[in-house]
Amino acid sequence: MKLPAMLAAALLAATAATAVEIQGVKIPPNVEVAGKTLQLNGAGLRTFTLVFVPIKIYVAALHSPAPLRSADAVNASTGPLQFTFTFLRDVGQGDVTEAWQKQFAASNTHTYAGYEKDRDAFIAMLGPIQSGGAETVQLVGTDTIVIDQGKMKGTIPGRNFQQSFLSLWFGSDPVSDDLKAALLGQ
Fold first, then answer.
1. What's the CA angle centered on 147, arms 172 and 178, to 5 degrees?
2. What is the pLDDT of residue 51?
3. pTM above 0.70, yes or no
4. For the chain, what is the largest distance between any 2 Cα atoms, rounded to a whole number of angstroms?
5. Domain extents for the chain?
6. Which of 11, 73, 137, 176 is deepest in the core (most CB within 10 A)?
7. Is the distance from CB of 101 to CB of 108 less than 8 angstroms?
8. CA 68/CA 86 separation, integer angstroms
């Protein structure tokens, strides 16, 4: 390897090893999933605008085994991947359920036989959340693993549901274009 390439690789590694902080939420540079070390791919803030006032909802982070800088790269990744959503406010059970239902209705671009059953099972695994609490979704093999505030809640098998979940963030009508770019490290 030539010296400039070695320096660039060292700089990239040093950058990847640094924790990121958004709205007081510290995002680790690496996480362990299914025996693999994943690096922070990108992170950003999810806001919701109500009567022209932006409300900060959560900080989202995506960890991956290698940099994924496009939606196509994320969708093609064999993972594992980890999404972490750290909430900046308390959210009751009704609001958690409603928010996920609305997001799937607005952003999902991948449906299949059994989609509604899988979507409903996923949403049912997520409970009320306190400020600072986190929902984690891991894509391991063809399984979608749901962890709510540190507790494993269940698994949804199948690549189809993973593609539906990924379409929320990286499809043609994502949760937020800004958050999509941030998760891609752009």
1. 30
2. 81
3. yes
4. 57
5. 24-183
6. 137
7. no
8. 21
Cα separation, 101 vs 106, whole angstroms: 9
Question: Which residues fall within 8 angstroms of residue 53, CB to CB, at 6 or more apart?
Answer: none
CATH of 24-183, one of 3.40.50.2300, 3.50.70.10, 3.10.310.40, 3.40.30.10: 3.50.70.10
86, 59 Cβ separation under 8 angstroms: yes
Q: How many CA atoms lie within 13 A of 140 on its CB side?
A: 17
Distance CA 41, CA 63 (A): 5
In 10 A of CB 141, how many CB atoms?
A: 13
Q: SS3 letters for 98-120?
A: HHHHHHHHHHCCCCCCCHHHHHH
What pLDDT score was predicted for residue 17? 59
Q: What's the average pLDDT block by block, 10 residues per block, for the chain (186 residues)?
A: 38 58 96 97 90 89 97 95 97 95 95 97 96 97 97 97 97 94 96
